[in-house]
Amino acid sequence: MPENSSPRTVREAYSFACLSCGHGWEQAYDIEHHVDPHGRPFVTYHANGREVPSPLTRATCPNCEGHRVRVMRAGLVAAAERARS
Fold first, then answer.
1. What is the DSSP annotation of the chain?
2. Residue 20's beta-bridge partner residues?
3. What residues form DSSP beta bridges with 3?
4. Is the pTM of this model over 0.90?
5. Per the database record, which ranges form the C2H2-type domain (predicted)?
6. Cα–Cα distance measured from residue 3 to residue 83, given in angstroms and rounded to the nearest whole number
7. What does the radius of gyration of the chain's CA atoms come to, in whole angstroms?
8. Domain edges within the chain
9. Using CA atoms, how far apart are residues 13 and 42, in angstroms rounded to an integer?
């Protein structure tokens, strides 16, 4: 991607489970693929209109603020909640 072009954006969602408190949640991200002035690719993650750290390297539980978080494919938390109902 040329340096001056717009970033390519993809949308991905993940399920999360906190291994400290047991809280589960899902979050969708807009992931922008960029190229720096030296031609090196990098990505930025956006959730709810804000730039956020990568959920794959620094997920934080919104319930207890812990970092012992398992990242899974989207839909697993919703499926578990349906099974409990």
1. --TTSPPEEEEEEEEEEETTT--EEEEEEEEEEEE-TTS-EEEEEEETTEEE--TTT----TTT--S-EEEEETTHHHHHHHHH-
2. none
3. none
4. no
5. 18-38
6. 48
7. 15
8. 8-74
9. 19
